[in-house]
Amino acid sequence: xxxxxxPEDDRPREKxxxxxxxxxxxxxxxxxxxxxxxxxxxxxxxxxxxxxxFGSLTRLFAASxxxxxxxxxxxxxxxxxxQAVLEMARRALGESMRQTDALASPGAVRDYLRLALxxxxxxxxxxxxxxxxxRVLAVEELFRGTLTQTSVYPREVVKRALAHNAAAxxxxxxxxxxxxxxxxxxxxxxxxxxxxxxxxDVRVIDHFVVGSGNAVSxxxxxxx
Length: 224
Fold this sequence. Notes:
- The chain is an alpha+beta fold.
- It has 10 helices and 5 strands.
- The mean pLDDT is about 85.
């Protein structure tokens, strides 16, 4: 049955307008983005299949152009639309993060990093550079690695901190496995970076490990 033939209260678009976006399932939200299904499948059916096929919205959003366009009913136009939506969300979260004290609003930083890093199939290490008032100066991806490890060079982090005249920074990297639990190697790296940055009077105020839909804070865990 086509969505237009469903009871009005069950149609994703009408449901969103009446009850808000938070009332919709992942598949219903994705169906609004897709707008149409394919022969024999409504947009909601297609959306459910996509979430199941990729494992989550996060992994769907991180899919390469080839992976995305290989699905029947999708293509370059839909891929371009999705990337535009994701980039607008990143920029909006980035603006929110830059307008606040990073320590007073850790949720904004966490949300930005989750959207920027979650779902990637390779490790990315990035740094949020802060001024003396803990306002964001810049966010940079400094290292990119394989599925299992990233080579992070403390001297490069120190150089970039000095280039931005940063007073403090927040470290972040993702776990492609989707498990956000910090490893012993993550803890050792954090301590090595803290020691190197302390020599130039730059504080490490947190380190986030990003997994599928989650981001664990070293500061909240007492690991700093």
